[in-house]
Amino acid sequence: MIPMQFPGRWSIAHQQPEEKVPLFTVISDVDSDISSDSDIAPLSRSEYLSDEEKIQPTVVLVASESHQTTKYTHRRSWRVHVGAVVVVAIFLIVSTCIVLEILRQSQDASSFVSTPPMGWNSWNKFKCYGLNESVVMATADSLVSTGLAKLGYIYVNLDDCWQESRNKNGILQPDNARFPNGIKPVADYVHSMGLKFGLYTDVGNMTCQRLPGSFGYEDVDAKTFAEWEVDFLKNDDCYLSANVAPTTSYEKMFAALQRSGRKIVHSVKSSMEITKAAAVANMRRVGHDVIDNWEVMLSLVDVFNEQGLEAYSIPGFWNDLDMLEVGNGRMTTDEYRAHFSLWCALKAPLLLGNNLAVMSKSTLSILMNREAIQVNQDSLGIPATLIYSETYSAGPSTADFLVEAKNCNISSQFQYWSYNNVTKQIRQPYSKTCLSVHEQNRYLFARPCNDKNTYQKWVIHSKKDRIQLSGKCLSTSTGNALVKLRHCLNDPGKYKLPLAHPLHDIFQLMYINNSTTTFQIKDPVSKCLETNIKPQIQVYAGPLSNKRLVVVILNRGPATHDMTFEWSHFPIGDIKQPFLLHDLWEHKDVGKFSIKDSVLVTLRSHSAKMFTITPV
User: Fold this and answer.
1) Which of 3, 270, 303, 338 has the fewest CB atoms lying closer than 10 Å?
2) Does the pLDDT value for residue 549 go beyond 80?
3) What is the CA 148 to chain-centroid distance, rounded?
């Protein structure tokens, strides 16, 4: 028996299934491609990617013959027992009670946000340099003209850099160059399109871009936002006073918003205590910022899983996995579909982060997947849960693994490194990878070793306790687990806890815990660099309204995999009741199945399948 735990919801146990012959083989037979839009500008403004027509993957259903097994060359076969996804009977018994209880406990803060907010945010694509009133108005136009607004994308949210200063009365003043007519006319234009308008602030003295924050001005700012008819407030936590707890600061802003008399969606950061967040916010970030990268995007899902955040998600309060990166050009079409599938199934807010004025057909088709959106907006409001994982086995890998700062553990093989003075590489012996810097975003990865790769050429300064590459320093942060290459600070030791700002929340003192030929790389707060080896195959499942289930099957690995799903050992109640399996990306039924049937699914590298299961 293999027990499967469902944190905060339910638990079951698997039994050994009988051997079955798959009724159908579901095969994705088109190679994935890079999904990019013509206006894409990554970290360097000079690096633009061309827009190409995207080839849509197809699914072929092949009826299996009796006593025959479909064979695939250069593929590893995985038998995945995911009967736990068909737990209709359990949900029929408990889902109503759960929903009634969580709705009873909901606060006034969450009573008007019954489904995850959908819309657009300016930061991922435009950052500071590209934000202005023309972009905002064009985005509102695009939401309407493309039909995105009709699907629920109604919030148009300005991130950092809209503001510039405060006047003599303490009222926030917009950047005159970016918003020469002020904020209210922009909000009025957005509202005239039938949409809602959002702004950004910070509970600290300054925003992350060192512009005026709301600390000490909570009532003044809340009144201003209400007068401008703001509908959504993203509330960051940079430059927070060392003597004030984030939770206290967020509570002050929430109280001010309540006094303003206007209902405003309140979005807070992960520094807000999760157990108290639902009382003062409608959504809470789960962790670090998302970027347009497969591993970093999935690392946010890992935080969601590791912290059991699905247990805290209720109608009106949502776990925010950060904005969507679909269409920004650094991931493939398959990766973007997986990204969107996970955000939908986990009931995360769907805030677009791309340039809506310039989108490829592929990008638009992902963002307008009505069936996936319906899963996200389902009235039951319960996120899917990770119910199955197939782990990575040691050995040479063609995959990239994120490197994170984790609690030091002398027993963890993924925290030990070695240094080659000739090649200047820092190697991770167990995964047989090398410490590497991502070319665009400067995050650290463990990648296949390449003696000619300049992003693997490290210099260890033992006297200075620094590890450098191309004159920049390896840096960790107390704010999150990610490790990055940053500009070297003259005296990193002067930054003491608690720190005031993420840009200062940097530790560049790296101590080598040297035993023999291998060592741990440790920062000043006892965090060690660790190769984040995650499972290659994962299955997520969760309940939907009308006795349905959603299932997401994720292939995180670098190779195509076949998975056979057995239903016979699942506690679904009435074993005589058949069910309909529906593919949400192919928009068609796979077929009707009974408890005695099985399904073979083939997944390409870095892709996902998304299904609904409906009793018939």
Assistant:
1) 3
2) yes
3) 21
Q: What are the beta bridge partners of residue 6?
A: 10
Q: CA 326 → CA 18, 267, 290, 343, 510, distances in Å?
A: 41, 21, 11, 11, 35
- Give the whole-angstrom CA distance, residue 236 versus residue 247: 12
Say how many C-beta atoms besides its own lie within 10 A of residue 273's C-beta.
13
Helix (H, G, I), strand (E, B) or coil at 436: strand
Nearest by Cα to 355 from 134, 161, 602: 134
525 pLDDT exceeds 60? yes
* Helix, strand, coil share of the chain (percent; to 5): 20, 30, 50
- List the catalytic residue out of 37, 221, 236, 583: 236
- What whole-number distance in Å separates Cα of residue 7 and Cα of residue 390? 19
Give 337-371 pLDDT, tens digit per residue: 999 999 999 999 999 999 999 999 999 999 999 99
Lowest pLDDT segment from 97-101, 435-439, 442-446, 526-530 = 97-101
Q: Is 219 a catalytic residue?
A: no
pTM equals 0.78
* Edge-to-edge order in the sheet of strand 318-320: 318-320, 283-285, 265-268, 232-236, 196-202, 155-157, 118-121, 350-352
Q: What span, in angstroms and rounded, lies between the C-alpha atoms of 16 and 79? A: 12
Percent of the chain with pLDDT over 70: 75
Query: What pLDDT score does 401 carry?
Result: 84
Strand 328-332 versus strand 34-36 pairing type? antiparallel
pLDDT surpasses 70 at 390: yes
Q: Which of 33, 289, 400, 465 is labelled catalytic?
A: 289
**Tokens (6 digits) for 165:** 């200063």
Q: How sure is the predictor about 514, in pLDDT bands with cuts at 50, 70 and 90?
A: low
What pLDDT shows up at residue 515? Answer: 53
Amino acid (one-letter) located at 480:
N
- Decide if 257 contacts 217 (C-beta within 8 A): no
Q: Give the residue from 323, 190, 317 showing the smallest Cα distance to 254.
A: 317
**Residue 354: half-sphere exposure toward Cβ, Cα within 13 Å:** 28
Q: Is the pLDDT of residue 195 over 90?
A: yes
For 583, the token pair is 């593919």
Catalytic, 334? Answer no
